[in-house]
Amino acid sequence: MNRYAFAAATAAALAAVTGGIAAAPTIFAQGAPQVPGVQDPARVTAGTYALDAGHTLVGWEVSHFGFNDYLGLFGNITGTMTMDPANIEAAKVEVMVPIAEVSVASAGLKDHLLRPGKDGGAPDFFGPTPGMATFTSTKVVKTGAMTADVTGTLTMNGKSAPVTLTTEFVGAGANPFNKKDTVGFHARTTIDRTQWGVNYAAPFVGKDVTLTISAAFEKQ
């Protein structure tokens, strides 16, 4: 490529990039740095919300032989929430987590998590058709201006047990892309996996699993 052709190609590339920036929402424009979501309960409106599956995640952490912690992630999560900011304790939440879509750094570990049991026996972890883990709230207790404890039933692996999520309101506002009113929360809890029949290598691989949840709900 001669220098004239190179200059023309460079100019075309720059035009494509700057054109893409110009087409982006005004939120990204210079001089308009305000973040759409703000930790302001006055921005939350009453109604029915659906989880934003593309931006909701459940992380898990478990001790590996007491040497270090291993981390994994669930995504493509669905669910609904009905909420009135004037009566937070009447809120209802239902969440469904597809276990088979677990993400881990080790392909070998994912294979083990979803491996069928030997000789027709029970799998070590979830097996090849684990279905959904579901959480259905039964009680919400406001604990602060931005926090609440959300108690509910976690059903997984054919077993159910109560779980309480320590929850924090993170922010609310209009999503700049789809214009939907959005509310976000962080939540955390620790469960004993053996309550749901996931017993493999316990307690050498820790029984206690810490769940960290980042959830975004869009008003319907």
Automatic annotation (TrEMBL):
<feature type="signal peptide">
    <location>
        <begin position="1"/>
        <end position="23"/>
    </location>
</feature>
<dbReference type="InterPro" id="IPR036761">
    <property type="entry name" value="TTHA0802/YceI-like_sf"/>
</dbReference>
<keyword id="KW-0732">Signal</keyword>
<feature type="domain" description="Lipid/polyisoprenoid-binding YceI-like">
    <location>
        <begin position="48"/>
        <end position="218"/>
    </location>
</feature>
<protein>
    <submittedName>
        <fullName>Polyisoprenoid-binding protein YceI</fullName>
    </submittedName>
</protein>
<dbReference type="Pfam" id="PF04264">
    <property type="entry name" value="YceI"/>
</dbReference>
<dbReference type="InterPro" id="IPR007372">
    <property type="entry name" value="Lipid/polyisoprenoid-bd_YceI"/>
</dbReference>
